[in-house]
Prior knowledge:
Elements: H1 4-11, H2 16-23, H3 27-30, E1 33-39, E2 45-48, E3 51-55, E4 60-61, H4 72-82, H5 91-96, E5 98-100, E6 106-116, E7 119-132, H6 142-147, E8 154-158, H7 164-176, E9 181-185, E10 193-194, E11 197-198, E12 206-210, H8 214-224, E13 229-232, H9 238-249, E14 253-259, H10 263-268, H11 273-277, E15 283-288, E16 291-297
Parallel strand pairs: 8-14, 8-15, 9-12, 9-13, 13-14
Antiparallel strand pairs: 1-2, 1-7, 2-3, 3-4, 5-6, 6-7, 10-11, 15-16
Helix pairs in contact: 8-9
Amino acid sequence: MKTPETLTLAADYLPPAVRSAVLHLPPETRSRICEIRLRAGRPVSLTLGASDRFLAAGELTGNPASALIPGIDELGRSLQALLSYSVHSHRQELTEGYLTIRGGCRVGICGTAVRDGDSVQSVKYVSGLDFRIAGEFPGCAESVFRQTGQAGGLLVAGRPGSGKTTFLRDICRLLGDRSRTALIDERGELAAVHHGIPSHDTGLMTDVLDGYPRAKGILTALRVLNPVHIVCDELISAADADAVLAAAGCGVQITASVHAGSLAELEKRRNLAPLLDAGVFRYAVFLDRTQVQSIRRLP
């Protein structure tokens, strides 16, 4: 579920009128909020499950004319608060287009890219902020965990917003309660480490490498932590695949997430081909809007 603390932490960075309106919504409504989107000069919208609604003063509405509309100056002040008033200390995150705040919430940033050739150096003229509210659903992965043999080697697949991070966090908890597990948390969403302490339950025997680049973290865990399992999110690059192959070749079980809405989409991911060919993953579970759509045994 979305914990009240997580939403409150995210609300601290919202413009005052938006913060007040969100926190005055009924508790049942607040618990369903997945995203809060601020767009300069346009209505504030909230995503609750599969639906999007506009935010008025303390209530949801389908009428954009009655919704709160933040200005670009308000978005600028929110961004400065998110950056702790220090752009330099968050420069790397800005180049990736997001910030991760306490509690594991990720804030996507829309604006004009500051480029050096093909490389994005920063973002200016920020026109939108998307607060993705982190949540814990303890037990949401237990049935899949039992069906797939409780031994790792699982790909958690789905399109953006399908609940991969939440599901992967619970898988990590289940693995880490049973054996030595290393969690590579590049974006700080899975464990939400604050001053060295995970904010989310990732397992009794889980070691968290927070903020490590994924491939680097996997190889570091392999060298120094002697894990039975390695858990990471969003396999993207060839370097990620090479690191996973190295770990699997040493007998470590890998559990990871990937953007793919179906088996056909999964098989088109070129960076995954060597991993699928090597049998690194035994099962793939496909999610849609936090619901398990199917579990597939991989060849």
